[in-house]
Amino acid sequence: MSETHRRVLLAKPRGYCAGVDRAVQAVEIALTRFGAPVYVRKQIVHNTHVVNELEKRGAVFVEDTEEVPEGGVILFSAHGIAPEVRKAAEERGLRAIDATCPLVTKVHNEARRFAAGDYDILLIGHEGHEEVIGTTGEAPDRVTLVDGPESAAGVEVRDPAKVVWLSQTTLSVDETVQTVGALRERFPQLIDPPSDDICYATQNRQAAVKVIARDADVVIVVGSPNSSNSVRLVEVAKEAGAGAAYLVDDAGEVDDRWLEGAATVGVTSGASVPEELVAGVLGKLAALGFEDVEEVEAVKERMVFQLPRELRSPR
Ligand code: SF4
Known about the structure:
The protein is an alpha/beta fold. About 35% of the residues lie in helices and about 20% in strands. It has 9 helices and 12 strands. The strands form 3 sheets. Strands 10-9-11-1-12 form a 5-stranded parallel sheet, with helices on both faces. The protein has a 4-stranded parallel sheet with strand order 3-2-4-5, sandwiched between helices. Strands 7-6-8 form a 3-stranded parallel sheet, with helices on both faces. The longest helix is centred in the N-terminal third of the chain and has 17 residues, at about 20-35. The mean pLDDT is about 95. It binds iron/sulfur cluster. Iron/sulfur cluster binds near residues 101 and 229.
């Protein structure tokens, strides 16, 4: 009897997006330039390992600016902040470094612009997510949160002719299309955002996981449970035909029983996951007989962002 050929399909792109790379570098440079401690409001990016590593090097993660001593250095995370947070930091005399991803800032700018034009803004996103809180804070009187297609039925607006939808950057592309469809049935004059709010990294990682999922018995997504884009990858993998899909923070969470009877395992990772964690999962799979790794590149990715203004070297 011939043995089953076990293989891994490794999705590309995976791992750090340009916004996460910039935010992590910002903390590292701030630690070198100003010395420990530097304070970071919320998790700089949604990954347990990244946060733990930065903590070891002297970053102190806080929930609010009030926890930072006057004159301290504070970094704002990649997910963005409401204007009142920036103001509170100024009032306390903190030295602020804004690591908000430029693609989140783009959505903030859209929210401000449409609010100034007196539009009602339907923000598609997940309730309680930091990015949604930050974007809503730009125009709290004009923004209504729409958390998925089922929420569309209950939305109220002032004038159906002046309504625009915006979104969180890390949503499922397919589910967002459904939500917009449900909103447009209610408000046919609904205006689209000037350009995609779901960011390139989220879209590319979902496109890549779809390619591997259709041939995979099991898909393993490396990422933390509070990482929106990682959780979406699990959902997208299942919808695209994977036999099963699981989210793991690292190799230690891979359960051998998931792989019983599997011939093809798909592997990918969220936009805030260091490559060494993926390497750890591949190592575990190799030990279980999945030594043959085939990389499947769905989209080429070359995006790079400049460091936050406050950290760019003087000429
Ligand atoms: Fe920016 Fe997208 Fe990365 Fe979020 S996932 S930090 S929006 S590039």
